[in-house]
Task: inverse folding
DNA sequence: GCGCCTTGCGTAATCGTTTACTCACAATGC
DNA sequence: GCATTGTGAGTAAACGATTACGCAAGGCGC
């Protein structure tokens, strides 16, 4: 039961070669005969030998591991991105360490510290910070920032949030809305700001004045959004459309409207953002702006791999913008 | 920019002590004076030195890291468990590597291999396998199996699924249902089987015959569940209650019923399982059996920590059963 | 037959820690 | 005053891999 873990030395002894040869065979580095290879592989197989990746990392100074930091893994949008990242980077031989920052800067820093101490080769980061300069003063690991765009971020993968905001608002306008409530996240992430810009842009394009009182803030939760919309709809009876910062909030808005006896989409039309699963399941199904989580993973992995390869040279920062699209359902 | 990473040797030199002392100070192992401690800590602070955890793990043969394997991180129930595990184990100084097995046995094995190679100290595992004997022949790491109960699992943390099935069914019976459809997951995990046992048990307790044609299988997805229920409700007009294997399926069932013009809960009553967020948001809100994800994390961490501490001695397998509770909402 | 390349291996240094031994010195007990 | 104990440190040997370097033997061209 308590068998000592085998090391390369054991394998070398058991197969009558040197440990250098064993290493070469395991890494397929050449300089050995077919015959020895077979013998050694045989011994490895039979003995159940397991390479010690810690030793390997120590020696080679690469860990074949990346860190992924997300604000909340129970948020379906983030979970889907994580899944996509794993899907694209595992075939390249990397392991992923997922960290949940719980939207807290200090936890975020703690995670970065341990990731650095573990010697991860790179990080994909959905950061809660407004400015990430401190992080880069602290550690020098390739980082790709995704979804949100903090100050001093190098490489980036973000959705085209402004266009998203524009498409949503334009859609509402074309459907006849003239008094469109914009329900935005209280936090001022770039995602939020850009969606607002799109909202304003659409108004300009269609020669509608932007009424600042129609831009309302709430927490990023169903409950808070519902509360805020209940309030606002009672204060302002002219509202005929709502564009929400994300689908959870949109759901809150939807239910607030229904609770007040509004008919959806006749009295009020609603558009969300993200295109998570509930949007198809809720009643009525929610019109929304789809973000391509698969492409998020794919692009960020692509860029990170490139950065890690060129680690020594100063890599150039890359920015990838992921297109969004309007998905029309029943709330508009 | 390209500063060489500092090691303990550098710190030792810079502060004029030996590297042993530096190590002792970092690990607070005693055998140094307050005075030297201050000096060394100062140097460390100023130089931005980062401990190399790979070297440490290599030397000590423990990695302060655990692996968590889940079938699908985008499933809110699993994501919440992961979050809870992190919450309870991070304060103990452990990092978590989350692996998504995508419900595939081979991916599961691949993950276990890398986790073993990385030298994780323990694993918390929601396994897709029916039997995990092979795994334990392969590696000898403490593992706590949670949620599902495979054959040859050692330590376990599972919900009281049978009681859950019983409570759900009893509730339906008490509300007047006599022809209760049980919509079960196609896969035959222990969770599924036990919920069925509860369903049968409640029938017996209330002297109702179990009609096998009322036990219907479907994939664990909204769409598949909806499809199956649409079909079944058209075939059998006598059905007046539905107990579903999880909330996503229950939502499918709910919408199938609504689509057929049934009034909920007047014509048909529905109960789900898990208590994920949508159950409160959907329309009408779903009665369900709540699983305590927080306790799942807490218990499994507790047991795993114990197993890791007693690694050398043969630890005794522990089984923790998490209580479930009925949450009554509007579908019943 | 001589130089030179290639192939197939082995030797030993190295990565950054931890820790078992030392050891000097001071304090304490009797 | 002498044995004992405790304190603050240093030396060096691991941990398990990778890899630069060395070397022998065989093949090849000329």
Result:
């Amino acid at each position: 039961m308590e068998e000592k873990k085998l090391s390369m030395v054991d394998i070398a002894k058991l197969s009558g070669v040197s440990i250098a040869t064993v290493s070469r065979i395991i890494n397929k580095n050449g300089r050995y005969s077919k015959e020895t290879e077979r013998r050694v592989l045989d011994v490895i197989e039979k003995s159940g030998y397991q390479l010690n990746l810690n030793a390997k990392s120590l020696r080679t100074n690469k860990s074949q591991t990346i860190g992924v930091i997300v604000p909340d893994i129970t948020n379906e949008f983030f979970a889907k991105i994580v899944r996509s990242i794993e899907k694209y980077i595992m075939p390249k031989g990397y392991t992923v360490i997922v960290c949940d920052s719980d939207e807290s800067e200090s936890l975020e820093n703690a995670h970065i510290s341990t990731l650095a101490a573990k010697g991860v080769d790179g990080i994909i980061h959905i950061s809660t910070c407004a400015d990430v300069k401190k992080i880069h003063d602290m550690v020098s690991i390739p980082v790709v920032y995704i979804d949100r765009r903090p100050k001093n971020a190098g490489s980036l993968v973000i959705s085209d949030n402004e266009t998203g905001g524009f498409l949503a608002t334009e859609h509402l306008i074309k459907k006849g809305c003239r008094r469109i409530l914009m329900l935005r996240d209280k936090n001022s992430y770039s995602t939020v700001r850009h969606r607002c810009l799109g909202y304003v842009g659409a108004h300009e394009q269609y020669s509608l004045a932007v009424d600042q009182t129609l831009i309302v803030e709430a927490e990023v939760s169903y409950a808070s959004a519902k509360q805020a919309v209940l309030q606002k709809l009672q204060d302002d009876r002219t509202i005929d459309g709502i564009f929400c910062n994300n689908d959870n909030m949109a759901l809150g808005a939807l239910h607030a409207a229904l609770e007040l006896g509004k008919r959806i989409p006749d009295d009020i039309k609603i558009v969300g953002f993200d295109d998570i699963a509930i949007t198809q399941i809720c009643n009525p199904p929610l019109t929304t702006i789809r973000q391509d989580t698969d492409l998020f993973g794919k692009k960020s992995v692509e860029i990170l791999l490139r950065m890690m390869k060129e680690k020594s040279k100063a890599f150039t920062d890359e920015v990838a913008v992921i297109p969004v699209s309007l998905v029309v359902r029943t709330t508009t």
